[in-house]
């Protein structure tokens, strides 16, 4: 396990270095010069005030979504339970968009955005919990209800944008997911939030491991199932809300990364949750670096200016392809 953590940490460092040199406006040699203390004022501003906080936000958001996904899948005993398909992410997006449209939140008040996103995520999770009813223990029924809840919340978000079309430009990042334009204020808000709720999720690693074995096993071991599941869902919602408020709705990160983390680190969540955090950080940081490089190549090929590929579009496409490949390779698997 220590070797796997070391390998992932090294991969995260490589992805971080790629992201710092992938953006437009500065050559890799200039980046290294600035990191060594050189460069002019403009170059230092671009690297230290724009690229570095963007990198840190990508790492923090990826870790938060991955941990939230693993907590949801463990608490609900559903391998298809992720923030994207359980109403949590769509609810957080709806909360952020509604608060912005009403003038209660905005980029000048990021804390209000996080609180609104958290309220929306809790609402989405509660709605799923109510609709699932007695079928909460059935993974297929929970997945179906989650898709329905997510669709309804997505429709409500579209209605808000129709009522306030002037807000479309300011909220499109929440709908797609992007790290573009993230500054130190976003990082200073994200890291304590992610550390607080990530630590709380790790403290629930033992109960979550029991919940993965089934309610009967957990009850036989003396675990208060309802209380443990409620606390776990609260951690997942809070982590998702913080990530959504920072980078928007990054697709498939919270759904697929937990499976990779369990494959690498096993079912013991005392190790799996930190492992999921590292894997999620690597995935989002690497995807953001690829998105920036792709934007540069497309801009040069099409001879257009200002073309930007959002990282959320890349994670959604790659995640959908990966999920399809997994399903086709294991057609007889029951989710």
Automatic annotation (TrEMBL):
InterPro entries tied to this protein: ABC_BtuC-like (IPR037294), ABC_transptr_permease_BtuC (IPR000522)
Subcellular location: Cell membrane
Spans through the membrane: 52-73, 85-105, 111-131, 143-163, 190-211, 231-257, 307-327
One Pfam family it belongs to: FecCD
Record keywords, A-Z: Cell membrane, Membrane, Transmembrane, Transmembrane helix, Transport
Topology within the bilayer: Multi-pass membrane protein
Stated family: Belongs to the binding-protein-dependent transport system permease family. FecCD subfamily.
Name recorded for this polypeptide: FecCD family ABC transporter permease
Organism per entry: Streptomyces chitinivorans
Biological classification of the source: Bacteria, Bacillati, Actinomycetota, Actinomycetes, Kitasatosporales
């Amino acid at each position: 396990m220590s070797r796997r953590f070391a390998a992932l940490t090294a991969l995260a460092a490589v992805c971080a270095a790629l992201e710092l040199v992938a953006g437009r406006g500065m050559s890799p040699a200039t980046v290294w010069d600035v990191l060594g203390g050189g460069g002019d004022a403009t170059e230092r501003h671009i690297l230290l005030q724009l690229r570095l906080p963007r990198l840190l936000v990508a790492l923090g958001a990826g870790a938060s979504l991955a941990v939230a996904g693993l907590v949801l899948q463990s608490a609900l005993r559903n391998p298809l339970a992720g923030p994207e398909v359980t109403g949590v992410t769509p609810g957080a997006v709806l909360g952020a968009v509604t608060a912005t449209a009403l003038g209660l939140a905005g980029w000048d008040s990021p804390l209000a955005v996080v609180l609104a996103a958290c309220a929306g995520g809790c609402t989405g999770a509660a709605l799923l919990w109510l609709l699932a009813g007695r079928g909460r223990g059935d993974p297929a029924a929970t997945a179906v209800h989650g898709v329905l809840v997510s669709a309804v919340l997505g429709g409500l978000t579209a209605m808000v944008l129709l009522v306030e079309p002037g807000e479309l430009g300011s909220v499109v990042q929440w709908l797609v997911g992007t790290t573009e334009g993230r500054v130190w204020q976003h990082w200073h808000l994200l890291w304590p939030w992610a550390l607080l709720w990530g630590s709380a999720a790790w403290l629930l690693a033992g109960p979550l491991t029991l919940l993965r074995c089934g309610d009967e096993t957990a009850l036989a071991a003396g675990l208060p199932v309802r209380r443990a599941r409620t606390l776990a869902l609260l951690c997942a919602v809070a982590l998702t809300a913080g990530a959504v408020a920072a980078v928007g709705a990054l697709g498939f990160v919270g759904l697929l990364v937990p499976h990779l983390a369990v494959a690498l680190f096993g079912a013991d969540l005392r190790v799996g949750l930190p492992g999921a955090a590292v894997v999620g950080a690597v995935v989002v940081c690497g995807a953001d670096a690829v998105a920036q490089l792709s934007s540069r190549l497309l801009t040069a090929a099409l001879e257009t200016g200002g073309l930007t590929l959002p990282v959320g579009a890349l994670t959604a496409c790659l995640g959908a392809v990966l999920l399809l490949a997994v399903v086709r390779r294991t057609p007889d698997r029951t989710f």
